[in-house]
Specification:
Elements (H helix, E strand, L loop, with lengths): L9 H8 L6 H7 L2 H14 L8 E2 L2 H8 L3 H14 L2 E4 L3 E4 L22 E3 L9 H13 L15 H13 L9 E4 L2 H12 L5 E6 L3 H9 L3 E8 L2 E2 L1 H11 L3 E4 L13 H14 L2 E5 L27 E6 L11 E4 L2 H10 L9 H40 L13 E5 L5 H10 L2 E5 L12 E5 L4 H18 L18
Parallel strand pairs: 4-14, 6-7, 6-9, 9-10, 10-11
Antiparallel strand pairs: 1-3, 2-3, 5-12, 7-8, 11-12, 13-15, 14-15
Helix pairs in contact: 1-4, 3-5, 4-5, 6-13, 7-13, 8-9, 10-11, 13-15, 14-15
């Protein structure tokens, strides 16, 4: 068995189980206390609140904390072992697992976006910004001859775009110079380059759980070991992050503090400062994904927290950005902000990966940022608010037992079903002309089966129709609710 990622203390598990009761009335309603305890722990595991391979507290300590007998805890642990949710070793403790857990989940591919009659909720991305994009392409084409006299291979990126991006960070309160920027063909390529440069096979990488599915695949393919840190219903659990960084000592940690994908949470300044300090103390480099940074729906842009790089005192924050959410996913431009020395190291690493991002795309990005960004956001943000509202209303009308926290930004809702398996639902929904991303895609080993990510990157009428179709699919699957992850299935996403 590999080293445990996290030890869940009796105090922490009791907090997750709160409220806990063993009254006669409760027992009569729910069955024996040990079975209730096992069911509650299993639910926490499947929802990602307790990570896989986490060590559970000793039986006596948990019993004392909950005010129940040790026999009850022992029986609950034994039931979890019998059902395949716990593995124990005498003298070492008990670790969480899943029945039939797969160590690798097949790579997911993007589904076509033009299938007639199908509403695609598997991809959280907006269409191109129309006239602004057309004008930026025209301006980029006009300036292209200046650059065609050379070979076009620019490992660091086009100087004019690096300067534009540096100025953009400086305006946001993080002074940046062009030599701190490296341009990549998208954010995922940027993350992959950082992984290749800073981590080796077997190194641990801490991630939020749930998190962006494609990055999980990138970390697996790099040969790194995932260390999941559960998100709470309100965001980041600082104490769990503290414990994880101390005990697992990950080389890297990947976080999305700005409208986290898929939950939509926004980290406040206090959380950002604390996480930066914790990472500094343990020598962990933070990979900060800011691809949704611009999509602030319920907060004035001037009131947004300082970027994570603004809390970096020892140069252990690497920032990832992209055009895919602000402008268009078809414009494959991303970037890395780091120290000049690290940028040079990453540029050397990319020689075996690629030789630079497309020059024309970089010019288009430069013109979009300098000439059109403010106008694009002034148009898009109100439309996203309306779409988010329409999606929430449709869910309340058609699927009232499904729950979610309304995000203050980003592109999607992270929805807890009423027990419906999102894996089964994905297959049924496809038959009704709607693609969805099952919650298991966003966990490290098949957790979040009772969650689904629903983007509001469509117009209100389309979203209303999508939920009508989804509700019909739910009706077909309400009697089929598997209790454990059995492997990858269904249509794929995932941006």
């Amino acid at each position: 068995m590999s080293a445990p990622h996290l030890t869940v203390s009796s105090t922490r598990l009791a907090d997750l189980l709160h409220p806990w009761t063993t009254t006669t009335q409760s027992a009569a309603r729910t069955g024996p206390a040990y079975r209730t305890l096992a069911d509650r722990i299993r639910a926490l595991l499947l929802d990602g609140r307790i990570p896989l391979t986490a060590r559970l507290p000793a039986e006596r300590g948990l019993a004392d904390r909950l005010g129940i007998s040790r026999t009850t805890v022992a029986a609950a642990y034994e039931l979890l072992r019998t059902d395949g949710y716990l593995t124990s070793r005498r003298g070492s403790g008990s670790w969480t697992t899943l029945p039939g857990t797969h160590t690798e989940i097949p790579t997911r591919g993007l589904s076509p976006s033009t299938t007639t009659g199908v509403i695609d909720l598997g991809v959280a991305a907006l269409p191109g910004p129309g006239r602004a994009l057309h004008q930026a392409v025209a301006d980029a084409t006009d300036s292209l001859p200046t650059y065609t006299t050379g070979h076009g291979y620019l490992p660091g990126g086009l100087p004019v775009l690096r300067d534009t991006l540096a100025q953009r960070y400086t305006r946001r309160g993080v002074p940046t110079t062009p030599d701190q920027i490296l341009v990549t063909p998208g954010a995922l390529a940027a993350v992959t380059l950082v992984l290749r440069t800073l981590a080796g096979p077997g190194d641990r990488v801490a991630v939020e759980s749930p998190t962006y599915a494609n990055v999980l695949d990138a970390i697996r393919q790099a040969g790194n070991r995932l260390v999941p840190v559960p998100m709470t219903d309100t965001g980041w659990d600082v104490e769990t992050w503290r414990d994880t960084l101390r005990t697992a000592a990950p080389r890297l940690a990947y976080l999305i503090p700005d409208y986290q994908n898929p939950t939509g949470h926004l980290a406040d300044a206090g959380i950002r400062r604390t996480l930066a300090d914790l990472a500094r103390n343990t020598g962990t480099t933070l990979i900060i994904d800011e691809t949704c940074f611009d999509l602030a729906l319920d907060i004035d842009p001037a009131d947004r927290p300082l970027p994570m790089a603004g809390f970096d005192r020892t140069n252990n924050v690497v920032t990832i950005g992209s055009t895919s959410k602000t402008f268009w996913g078809g414009l494959r431009i991303g970037w890395i902000r780091a120290t000049p020395d690290l940028v040079r190291r990453i540029a050397a690493t990319r020689a075996s990966f690629d030789v630079g991002a497309p020059v024309l795309d970089q010019l288009v990005t430069h013109h979009l940022i300098t000439d059109h960004e403010d106008a694009i956001l002034e148009s898009r943000l109100p439309a996203l608010r309306a779409a988010r509202g329409a999606l929430a209303d449709a869910l309340a009308d058609r699927l009232p037992d499904w729950t979610f926290a309304m995000p203050v930004g980003g592109l999607s809702l992270w929805v807890r079903t009423d027990g419906t398996s999102s894996l089964t639902l994905a297959e049924a929904a496809a038959r009704h002309g709607v693609r969805i991303a099952a919650g298991t895609h966003f966990g490290t080993d098949g957790t979040f089966e009772h969650h689904v990510r629903l983007p509001y990157a469509h117009d209100p009428a389309t979203l209303t129709e999508a939920i009508r179709r989804l509700a019909t699919a739910v009706g077909e699957t309400e009697r089929s609710r598997p209790g454990a992850y059995t492997g990858f299935s269904g249509a794929a996403c995932l941006a």
